[in-house]
Specification:
CATH topology of the largest domain: Spore Coat Polysaccharide Biosynthesis Protein SpsA, Chain A
Order of helices and strands: EHEHEHEEHEHEHHEHHHHHH
Number of strands: 8
Number of domains: 2
Strand order of the largest sheet: 3-2-1-4-7-6-8-5
Structural class: alpha/beta
CATH superfamily of the largest domain: Spore Coat Polysaccharide Biosynthesis Protein SpsA, Chain A
Distance between the termini: 36 Å
Length: 374
Protein backbone atom coordinates (compact mmCIF):
# COMPACT_ATOMS: atom_id res chain seq x y z
CA UNK A 1 0.00 0.00 0.00
CA UNK A 2 1.31 3.41 -0.95
CA UNK A 3 2.73 5.53 1.87
CA UNK A 4 1.04 8.54 0.30
CA UNK A 5 -2.35 6.92 0.12
CA UNK A 6 -2.74 4.68 3.16
CA UNK A 7 -6.16 3.65 1.88
CA UNK A 8 -8.16 0.66 3.06
CA UNK A 9 -11.01 -0.49 0.82
CA UNK A 10 -13.64 -2.58 2.61
CA UNK A 11 -16.07 -4.66 0.58
CA UNK A 12 -19.06 -6.25 2.38
CA UNK A 13 -20.79 -9.22 0.75
CA UNK A 14 -23.72 -11.34 1.88
CA UNK A 15 -23.91 -14.73 0.15
CA UNK A 16 -23.30 -13.55 -3.42
CA UNK A 17 -21.99 -10.27 -4.76
CA UNK A 18 -23.23 -9.58 -8.28
CA UNK A 19 -20.00 -7.80 -9.22
CA UNK A 20 -17.56 -9.14 -6.61
CA UNK A 21 -15.22 -10.85 -9.08
CA UNK A 22 -15.11 -7.85 -11.39
CA UNK A 23 -14.58 -5.41 -8.51
CA UNK A 24 -11.75 -7.43 -6.95
CA UNK A 25 -10.15 -7.80 -10.37
CA UNK A 26 -10.08 -4.01 -10.65
CA UNK A 27 -8.94 -3.30 -7.10
CA UNK A 28 -6.18 -5.91 -7.11
CA UNK A 29 -4.47 -4.15 -10.02
CA UNK A 30 -3.21 -1.27 -7.86
CA UNK A 31 -0.75 -1.02 -4.97
CA UNK A 32 -2.25 2.25 -3.74
CA UNK A 33 -4.57 0.52 -1.29
CA UNK A 34 -5.30 -2.63 0.64
CA UNK A 35 -8.53 -4.56 0.06
CA UNK A 36 -10.49 -6.30 2.80
CA UNK A 37 -13.58 -8.35 1.94
CA UNK A 38 -16.07 -9.12 4.72
CA UNK A 39 -18.22 -12.10 3.72
CA UNK A 40 -21.34 -13.12 5.66
CA UNK A 41 -22.64 -16.64 4.91
CA UNK A 42 -20.76 -16.71 1.57
CA UNK A 43 -21.88 -18.99 -1.24
CA UNK A 44 -19.49 -21.46 -2.87
CA UNK A 45 -19.15 -19.07 -5.82
CA UNK A 46 -18.13 -16.24 -3.48
CA UNK A 47 -15.57 -18.48 -1.78
CA UNK A 48 -14.08 -19.33 -5.17
CA UNK A 49 -13.71 -15.63 -5.99
CA UNK A 50 -12.04 -14.96 -2.63
CA UNK A 51 -9.62 -17.84 -3.12
CA UNK A 52 -8.77 -16.56 -6.61
CA UNK A 53 -7.68 -13.17 -5.26
CA UNK A 54 -6.57 -14.44 -1.85
CA UNK A 55 -2.91 -13.50 -2.33
CA UNK A 56 -3.75 -9.88 -3.15
CA UNK A 57 -6.52 -9.20 -0.64
CA UNK A 58 -7.56 -9.95 2.93
CA UNK A 59 -10.89 -11.55 3.64
CA UNK A 60 -12.93 -12.29 6.74
CA UNK A 61 -15.60 -14.98 6.62
CA UNK A 62 -18.54 -15.43 8.98
CA UNK A 63 -20.76 -18.50 8.75
CA UNK A 64 -23.58 -16.54 10.40
CA UNK A 65 -25.11 -13.34 9.14
CA UNK A 66 -23.76 -10.59 11.36
CA UNK A 67 -25.21 -7.76 9.30
CA UNK A 68 -23.41 -5.16 7.23
CA UNK A 69 -22.78 -2.66 10.03
CA UNK A 70 -21.39 -5.18 12.49
CA UNK A 71 -19.27 -6.92 9.85
CA UNK A 72 -17.66 -3.67 8.68
CA UNK A 73 -17.05 -2.41 12.21
CA UNK A 74 -15.38 -5.73 13.01
CA UNK A 75 -13.23 -5.54 9.88
CA UNK A 76 -11.88 -2.15 10.91
CA UNK A 77 -9.37 -3.79 13.28
CA UNK A 78 -7.72 -5.45 10.29
CA UNK A 79 -7.50 -2.22 8.27
CA UNK A 80 -4.35 -0.10 8.40
CA UNK A 81 -5.44 2.83 6.23
CA UNK A 82 -6.04 6.36 7.42
CA UNK A 83 -8.72 6.70 4.75
CA UNK A 84 -11.52 4.13 4.56
CA UNK A 85 -13.36 3.40 1.33
CA UNK A 86 -16.52 1.29 1.42
CA UNK A 87 -17.80 -0.33 -1.80
CA UNK A 88 -20.65 -2.85 -1.97
CA UNK A 89 -20.11 -6.14 -3.81
CA UNK A 90 -22.80 -5.40 -6.43
CA UNK A 91 -20.79 -2.36 -7.56
CA UNK A 92 -17.71 -1.95 -9.72
CA UNK A 93 -15.50 0.92 -10.83
CA UNK A 94 -16.18 2.59 -14.13
CA UNK A 95 -12.47 3.33 -14.35
CA UNK A 96 -9.81 2.25 -11.84
CA UNK A 97 -7.70 5.31 -12.67
CA UNK A 98 -10.46 7.59 -11.32
CA UNK A 99 -10.06 6.08 -7.86
CA UNK A 100 -6.26 6.13 -8.14
CA UNK A 101 -6.32 9.85 -8.99
CA UNK A 102 -8.68 10.48 -6.08
CA UNK A 103 -6.25 8.72 -3.72
CA UNK A 104 -3.19 10.57 -5.04
CA UNK A 105 -4.87 13.98 -4.88
CA UNK A 106 -6.79 13.43 -1.65
CA UNK A 107 -7.55 16.71 0.10
CA UNK A 108 -6.89 16.34 3.83
CA UNK A 109 -9.66 18.86 4.53
CA UNK A 110 -12.22 16.38 3.20
CA UNK A 111 -13.87 14.16 5.82
CA UNK A 112 -16.73 12.26 4.14
CA UNK A 113 -16.77 11.86 0.37
CA UNK A 114 -19.65 10.33 -1.54
CA UNK A 115 -18.90 8.86 -4.98
CA UNK A 116 -21.08 9.26 -8.05
CA UNK A 117 -23.12 6.10 -8.67
CA UNK A 118 -24.59 5.04 -12.00
CA UNK A 119 -26.99 2.13 -12.52
CA UNK A 120 -26.39 -0.18 -15.48
CA UNK A 121 -29.49 0.18 -17.66
CA UNK A 122 -30.45 -3.35 -18.71
CA UNK A 123 -34.28 -3.36 -18.57
CA UNK A 124 -37.22 -1.17 -17.56
CA UNK A 125 -36.69 -1.73 -13.83
CA UNK A 126 -33.03 -0.76 -13.98
CA UNK A 127 -33.91 2.32 -16.05
CA UNK A 128 -36.30 3.41 -13.31
CA UNK A 129 -33.85 2.66 -10.50
CA UNK A 130 -31.36 4.76 -12.49
CA UNK A 131 -33.35 7.87 -11.53
CA UNK A 132 -33.16 6.96 -7.85
CA UNK A 133 -29.41 7.35 -8.07
CA UNK A 134 -29.71 10.51 -10.15
CA UNK A 135 -31.78 11.88 -7.26
CA UNK A 136 -29.20 10.71 -4.68
CA UNK A 137 -26.43 12.40 -6.66
CA UNK A 138 -28.30 15.69 -7.07
CA UNK A 139 -29.22 15.88 -3.38
CA UNK A 140 -25.67 15.14 -2.23
CA UNK A 141 -24.13 17.49 -4.78
CA UNK A 142 -26.45 20.34 -3.75
CA UNK A 143 -25.90 19.60 -0.04
CA UNK A 144 -22.14 19.72 -0.49
CA UNK A 145 -22.35 22.97 -2.47
CA UNK A 146 -24.83 24.74 -0.20
CA UNK A 147 -23.78 23.54 3.24
CA UNK A 148 -20.73 21.23 3.02
CA UNK A 149 -22.88 18.82 5.04
CA UNK A 150 -25.51 16.21 4.21
CA UNK A 151 -28.04 14.43 6.42
CA UNK A 152 -28.17 11.37 4.17
CA UNK A 153 -25.60 9.20 2.51
CA UNK A 154 -25.96 6.33 0.09
CA UNK A 155 -23.42 4.11 1.80
CA UNK A 156 -22.85 1.70 -1.06
CA UNK A 157 -19.71 3.56 -2.19
CA UNK A 158 -18.06 6.34 -0.21
CA UNK A 159 -14.87 7.35 1.59
CA UNK A 160 -14.32 8.67 5.09
CA UNK A 161 -11.33 9.57 7.23
CA UNK A 162 -10.65 6.79 9.69
CA UNK A 163 -10.40 9.13 12.69
CA UNK A 164 -13.76 10.69 11.76
CA UNK A 165 -15.35 7.26 11.36
CA UNK A 166 -14.05 6.20 14.77
CA UNK A 167 -15.12 9.47 16.42
CA UNK A 168 -18.65 8.87 15.09
CA UNK A 169 -18.65 5.40 16.66
CA UNK A 170 -18.55 3.54 13.36
CA UNK A 171 -21.72 2.24 11.76
CA UNK A 172 -24.66 2.08 14.21
CA UNK A 173 -25.31 -1.63 14.70
CA UNK A 174 -28.88 -1.19 15.95
CA UNK A 175 -30.00 0.41 12.68
CA UNK A 176 -31.07 -1.24 9.44
CA UNK A 177 -30.00 1.87 7.49
CA UNK A 178 -26.52 2.07 8.97
CA UNK A 179 -25.37 4.61 6.37
CA UNK A 180 -28.21 7.00 7.22
CA UNK A 181 -27.42 6.69 10.93
CA UNK A 182 -23.75 7.45 10.31
CA UNK A 183 -24.48 10.36 7.96
CA UNK A 184 -26.97 12.06 10.28
CA UNK A 185 -24.58 11.83 13.22
CA UNK A 186 -21.89 13.34 10.98
CA UNK A 187 -24.29 16.13 9.99
CA UNK A 188 -25.16 17.03 13.58
CA UNK A 189 -21.45 17.17 14.46
CA UNK A 190 -20.55 19.40 11.53
CA UNK A 191 -18.43 16.87 9.64
CA UNK A 192 -17.46 18.24 6.22
CA UNK A 193 -19.08 16.48 3.27
CA UNK A 194 -18.14 16.40 -0.41
CA UNK A 195 -19.68 14.82 -3.49
CA UNK A 196 -16.95 13.48 -5.77
CA UNK A 197 -18.35 13.29 -9.29
CA UNK A 198 -14.99 12.32 -10.81
CA UNK A 199 -15.08 8.88 -9.19
CA UNK A 200 -17.85 6.90 -10.89
CA UNK A 201 -19.04 3.62 -9.39
CA UNK A 202 -21.44 1.52 -11.43
CA UNK A 203 -23.95 -0.89 -9.95
CA UNK A 204 -26.55 -3.47 -10.81
CA UNK A 205 -30.23 -2.84 -10.07
CA UNK A 206 -32.25 -5.61 -8.36
CA UNK A 207 -32.79 -8.47 -10.80
CA UNK A 208 -36.60 -8.48 -10.52
CA UNK A 209 -39.49 -6.48 -9.12
CA UNK A 210 -39.71 -9.01 -6.29
CA UNK A 211 -36.07 -8.38 -5.35
CA UNK A 212 -36.64 -4.64 -5.70
CA UNK A 213 -39.60 -4.81 -3.33
CA UNK A 214 -37.60 -6.80 -0.76
CA UNK A 215 -34.81 -4.23 -0.94
CA UNK A 216 -37.14 -1.23 -0.67
CA UNK A 217 -39.15 -2.87 2.11
CA UNK A 218 -35.89 -3.13 4.05
CA UNK A 219 -34.85 0.42 3.14
CA UNK A 220 -38.28 1.78 4.04
CA UNK A 221 -38.26 0.11 7.44
CA UNK A 222 -34.67 1.18 7.94
CA UNK A 223 -35.69 4.80 7.36
CA UNK A 224 -38.71 4.45 9.65
CA UNK A 225 -36.60 2.96 12.43
CA UNK A 226 -34.02 5.71 12.04
CA UNK A 227 -36.78 8.34 12.05
CA UNK A 228 -38.23 6.88 15.23
CA UNK A 229 -34.87 7.20 16.97
CA UNK A 230 -33.95 10.64 15.61
CA UNK A 231 -37.14 12.61 14.88
CA UNK A 232 -36.53 15.17 17.64
CA UNK A 233 -33.03 15.99 16.45
CA UNK A 234 -34.25 15.97 12.84
CA UNK A 235 -37.02 18.44 13.71
CA UNK A 236 -34.55 20.79 15.39
CA UNK A 237 -32.19 20.56 12.42
CA UNK A 238 -35.06 21.21 9.98
CA UNK A 239 -36.19 24.31 11.89
CA UNK A 240 -32.65 25.66 11.69
CA UNK A 241 -32.25 24.77 8.01
CA UNK A 242 -35.45 23.68 6.15
CA UNK A 243 -33.60 22.81 2.94
CA UNK A 244 -32.13 19.67 4.53
CA UNK A 245 -35.61 18.14 4.22
CA UNK A 246 -37.06 20.03 1.24
CA UNK A 247 -34.26 19.15 -1.19
CA UNK A 248 -34.31 15.37 -0.52
CA UNK A 249 -38.12 15.30 -0.53
CA UNK A 250 -38.28 16.89 -3.99
CA UNK A 251 -35.61 14.75 -5.63
CA UNK A 252 -36.31 11.42 -3.92
CA UNK A 253 -40.10 11.65 -4.38
CA UNK A 254 -40.82 14.12 -7.21
CA UNK A 255 -44.48 13.07 -7.33
CA UNK A 256 -44.89 14.89 -4.00
CA UNK A 257 -44.80 18.16 -5.91
CA UNK A 258 -48.23 17.32 -7.37
CA UNK A 259 -49.74 17.51 -3.88
CA UNK A 260 -48.05 20.85 -3.22
CA UNK A 261 -49.22 22.29 -6.54
CA UNK A 262 -52.76 21.07 -5.80
CA UNK A 263 -52.70 22.76 -2.40
CA UNK A 264 -51.77 26.14 -3.88
CA UNK A 265 -53.74 25.89 -7.13
CA UNK A 266 -56.56 28.48 -7.15
CA UNK A 267 -60.09 27.17 -7.48
CA UNK A 268 -62.03 27.69 -10.69
CA UNK A 269 -64.65 30.15 -9.39
CA UNK A 270 -67.23 29.33 -12.04
CA UNK A 271 -67.11 25.58 -11.32
CA UNK A 272 -67.02 26.16 -7.59
CA UNK A 273 -70.02 28.49 -7.84
CA UNK A 274 -71.95 25.95 -9.90
CA UNK A 275 -71.14 23.28 -7.32
CA UNK A 276 -72.45 25.53 -4.52
CA UNK A 277 -75.73 26.24 -6.36
CA UNK A 278 -76.30 22.52 -7.00
CA UNK A 279 -75.51 21.76 -3.38
CA UNK A 280 -78.22 24.20 -2.22
CA UNK A 281 -80.74 22.75 -4.70
CA UNK A 282 -80.13 19.12 -3.72
CA UNK A 283 -82.18 19.46 -0.54
CA UNK A 284 -85.27 20.17 -2.67
CA UNK A 285 -84.56 18.31 -5.94
CA UNK A 286 -83.22 14.81 -5.24
CA UNK A 287 -82.47 13.83 -8.83
CA UNK A 288 -79.75 16.50 -8.85
CA UNK A 289 -77.63 14.42 -6.44
CA UNK A 290 -75.81 12.55 -9.27
CA UNK A 291 -75.17 15.87 -11.00
CA UNK A 292 -73.77 17.27 -7.77
CA UNK A 293 -71.31 14.43 -7.41
CA UNK A 294 -70.40 14.58 -11.10
CA UNK A 295 -69.63 18.29 -10.74
CA UNK A 296 -67.59 17.72 -7.60
CA UNK A 297 -65.47 15.01 -9.17
CA UNK A 298 -65.09 17.06 -12.36
CA UNK A 299 -63.62 19.93 -10.35
CA UNK A 300 -61.31 17.55 -8.49
CA UNK A 301 -60.29 15.82 -11.72
CA UNK A 302 -59.50 19.05 -13.58
CA UNK A 303 -57.55 20.38 -10.63
CA UNK A 304 -55.65 17.10 -10.30
CA UNK A 305 -54.75 16.98 -14.00
CA UNK A 306 -53.49 20.57 -13.96
CA UNK A 307 -51.48 19.98 -10.78
CA UNK A 308 -50.02 16.75 -12.09
CA UNK A 309 -49.04 18.31 -15.43
CA UNK A 310 -47.42 21.34 -13.81
CA UNK A 311 -45.60 19.12 -11.32
CA UNK A 312 -44.32 16.75 -14.02
CA UNK A 313 -43.11 19.65 -16.17
CA UNK A 314 -41.33 21.28 -13.24
CA UNK A 315 -39.71 18.05 -12.06
CA UNK A 316 -38.65 17.08 -15.58
CA UNK A 317 -37.01 20.44 -16.20
CA UNK A 318 -35.10 20.47 -12.91
CA UNK A 319 -34.05 16.82 -13.25
CA UNK A 320 -32.94 17.35 -16.84
CA UNK A 321 -30.79 20.39 -16.04
CA UNK A 322 -29.12 18.94 -12.95
CA UNK A 323 -28.74 15.44 -14.38
CA UNK A 324 -27.01 16.96 -17.39
CA UNK A 325 -24.74 18.99 -15.09
CA UNK A 326 -23.66 15.82 -13.27
CA UNK A 327 -23.21 13.75 -16.42
CA UNK A 328 -26.34 11.57 -16.20
CA UNK A 329 -28.67 10.64 -19.04
CA UNK A 330 -32.26 11.86 -19.08
CA UNK A 331 -35.03 10.09 -21.01
CA UNK A 332 -38.37 11.98 -20.84
CA UNK A 333 -40.54 8.90 -21.45
CA UNK A 334 -38.83 6.83 -18.76
CA UNK A 335 -39.07 9.76 -16.37
CA UNK A 336 -42.85 9.92 -16.92
CA UNK A 337 -43.12 6.28 -15.78
CA UNK A 338 -40.81 7.07 -12.88
CA UNK A 339 -42.91 10.08 -11.89
CA UNK A 340 -46.39 8.54 -12.14
CA UNK A 341 -45.70 4.93 -11.11
CA UNK A 342 -42.30 4.27 -9.56
CA UNK A 343 -41.99 7.31 -7.29
CA UNK A 344 -45.51 6.99 -5.77
CA UNK A 345 -44.93 3.25 -5.18
CA UNK A 346 -41.65 3.94 -3.38
CA UNK A 347 -43.32 6.71 -1.36
CA UNK A 348 -46.15 4.34 -0.40
CA UNK A 349 -43.60 1.83 0.92
CA UNK A 350 -42.07 4.59 3.05
CA UNK A 351 -45.47 5.57 4.47
CA UNK A 352 -46.44 1.96 5.23
CA UNK A 353 -43.06 1.45 6.90
CA UNK A 354 -43.56 4.51 9.12
CA UNK A 355 -46.99 3.22 10.17
CA UNK A 356 -45.66 -0.28 10.92
CA UNK A 357 -42.66 0.91 12.91
CA UNK A 358 -44.09 3.91 14.77
CA UNK A 359 -47.75 2.99 15.28
CA UNK A 360 -47.74 -0.82 15.16
CA UNK A 361 -44.30 -1.18 16.82
CA UNK A 362 -43.14 -3.73 14.23
CA UNK A 363 -39.40 -3.23 13.92
CA UNK A 364 -38.08 -6.64 12.87
CA UNK A 365 -37.19 -7.36 9.25
CA UNK A 366 -36.97 -10.97 8.12
CA UNK A 367 -33.37 -12.14 7.58
CA UNK A 368 -31.88 -8.81 8.63
CA UNK A 369 -30.14 -8.78 12.04
CA UNK A 370 -29.99 -5.57 14.06
CA UNK A 371 -29.02 -7.12 17.38
CA UNK A 372 -26.00 -9.14 18.39
CA UNK A 373 -26.30 -12.83 17.54
CA UNK A 374 -25.87 -15.29 20.37
Amino acid sequence: MSEAGKISILVPVYRDGACLGKLLGQLSESRLWEVIVVADSPSSETLEVLEKYGKKIKYIISDRRLGKARSLNKALRYASGKILVFIDADHYLENTKQLEDFVKQFDRKQEIIDFKKVVDKENLLSRLVYYDYVGFAIVNWLSAKLASRCIGLNGSAFAIKRNVFEDLGGFPENEISEDLGLAFKAYTRGVKFKFEEKVVVRLKAPSSWREWFKQRWRWGHGFALWFKHNYKELLRATIRDPKIILIPAFFFYPSLTAFLVTAFLPENRMLAGLFLILFLMVSRIRFLVPLLFATYFSIAFVKGVVASTVSLALSSLVYFLLARRLGYDFNPLTFVVYFYFYSPLWLLIILVSLIRVILLKKTEIKDWPTSCPE
